[in-house]
Structure formats: C-alpha cells, structure tokens
Amino acid sequence: MNEFTLILVTGLGLGALYFLAASGLSLIYGLMGVLNFAHSAFMMAGSYAGWEVMRRLPDSMSVTLRLLLAILAALVVGALIGAVVEVTLIRPLYKHHIQQVLVTVGLSLAAVAVAQAVWSADPKPMESPEWMSTTTELGGALLPNDRLVFVAVALALFLGLLALLRYTRLGLIIRAGVENRTMVEALGINVRSTFTIVFAMGGAAAALAGILYSQYVGAVSPAQGGSLLIYAFIVVVIGGMGSLVGTAVAAVAVGLVQQMANYYAASGAGDLSVVLLLAIVLLLRPASMKGGHA
After folding, report:
1. Alpha-carbon distance 269 to 284, whole Å?
2. How far is the CA of 223 from the CAs of 110, 227, 258, in angstroms?
3. DSSP-assigned letters across all residues of 268-282
4. Is the pLDDT of residue 293 over 60?
C-alpha cells in the first residue's frame, strides 16, 4: 500500500507539472482561438530567468528565498513576453490561423537559437532547496516534497484561474469578448487590451511551469521547453481543446498513467502509454480536437 501511495503521489506531481505547462496553452486557445506553438519559448524564458536570478543573488540568502524571488522574476518575464508577442505578432493575425501557426513555430525555433547563443546548448545546473529533495511521511509512505509542492502550486493556479474567469469583471469581459466582440466594444470596453492580458497570463503560467520543471530535472537547457510542450499539447488534446477543467483532469490522467507504466511495466513504457492514451481518446472522442470553453 505504501508503494502504491508513493507511485500515486509522484504521478500526481508529474501531472501537476503537465497542468502548469498546459494551462496557459489551454487558456489562450480556449479564449482566443490561438494555437500557440511559441509556448515552449515562454517556458524556456521562465526557466532561464529563474536561473539567472538565483545565481546572481548573494549566497548569504537562503536557497528557498532565492527560489521564491526567481519564481517571481519568471512570472514577470513570462507575462511581459506574452504581452509583447500578442501585441506585435498575434494581434494582426487573429483571423489568419495558418499564419499564426507559422509565426509561433518560427518564434519557438528562434528562441531556442537565441538561448543557445547566449547560454550555450549545455544544461545549466539549477540549485534547489535541500528540503525539496527530502521526503515527508504520510500514512507510512515517504512522499517526495517537491511533488507535493508541484501539486499545491498546480491546484492553486487551477482554482485561481477558475475564480478569475467565473467571478471577476475581467473574466466576464474576456468571456463576453470571445462570444461577441462587437457588442463588448460597443459598450466602450477595450477588448484588445483584455486579450493582451490573457496572453500575459498564459505567458506567466508557462514561465511558472518552466522554472518548476527546472527544479524537477535539476537543470535548465534550451530544449527543455520543447520537450515539455509535447506533453502539454497531449494534455490539452485529451482534455478537450480549450477546456481548463478538462486540461486539469487530463494532466492528472497522463501523469498517473505514465508513472504507473514506468513502474509496473518497464522504464520508458510511460511515454508509449501516454501516446496510446492519446490515440484511444482521439478514436473514441474525435471532438476533443475541437475548441472548448475554460
């Protein structure tokens, strides 16, 4: 039983990382209809911003405090990049979906090239608080603290986004602007700036995923945003394109399936199991490729 609890919690922790990576992607597509392949660049920017902050802060500060400041910096960088990308590249292309894909794919490739030129292609070790590498006993099982942190952060983000979209004026404007932009603009509300905020939120969520993923793997590298983006897209497709609740459920399912397959089948079987899960969902529910609602 202790063994199963450990696998369950580690699977939930992995699913939490996938949700953090997929939430911004789902938010941007569900509310704006933009399939953002540059999401990997946002995640990479967050991880490198956090790494730069941690290594430049004095060693006299605790690692935990430096990590918190690094996360704050990553959120700011991700939000700024998201807003700039929306204003300069996405806004002129809202009615041109093929061009959106080409621009965001090109941006993701360019971001990797820039990161390699600035920091090289070699992974940079990411410092982690000692307590995140230890375990907490719960019900007789020793559970990794970092997975518990990932779950807590993902749950807070999920509840925060739902509350924002359903119970705030900004959320009402966002949803109304998606349904009938002309009517909202006729009321004197600037929908363009609202959509910029959505993109900034998506960028911040991606940056948060990037820096926490660097804690998970213990390093930052130009390619890790792309590898995480693959799982993010799988989660978004399984959960229903644009559905925030569906994304959360799919992230948990993918994390658990991958972890259990790796443990009970063979090392590396987890990736295959995730692809099989995606194939089954597409066969049984092809409508998951269509847009949904957050």
Report:
1. 22
2. 12, 7, 21
3. THHHHHHHHHHHHHH
4. no
% pLDDT > 90, the chain: 45
- In whole angstroms, what is the distance from residue 18 CA to residue 130 CA? 24
Number of domains in the chain: 1
Domain that holds residue 172: 15-127+163-289
User: Distance between CA 162 and CA 283 in Å, rounded?
Assistant: 29
User: Per the structure block, which two tokens stand in for 22?
Assistant: 């997929």
Would residue 96 count as lying in a domain?
Answer: yes
Rounded Cα distance, 154 and 177, in Å: 27
Residue 193 within any structural domain of the chain: yes
At 48 the three-state DSSP class reads helix
pLDDT of residue 179: 66
Q: Strand (E) positions, the chain?
A: 124-125, 135-138, 141-144, 219-220
Kindly state the DSSP code that residue 143 receives in the 8-state scheme.
E
How does DSSP classify residue 220? E
- Cβ atoms of 9 and 197 closer than 8 Å: no
The verdict on residue 167 lying in a domain is: yes
Q: What is the DSSP string of 160-192?
A: HHHHHHHHSHHHHHHHHHHH-HHHHHHTT--HH
Stated pTM of the model: 0.90
**pLDDT, tens digit, 9 for 90 and up, residues 194-208:** 888 889 999 999 999
Which residues, in sequence order, are bridge partners of residue 194? none
Is 235 inside any structural domain? yes
Residue carrying structure tokens 């990382």: 17
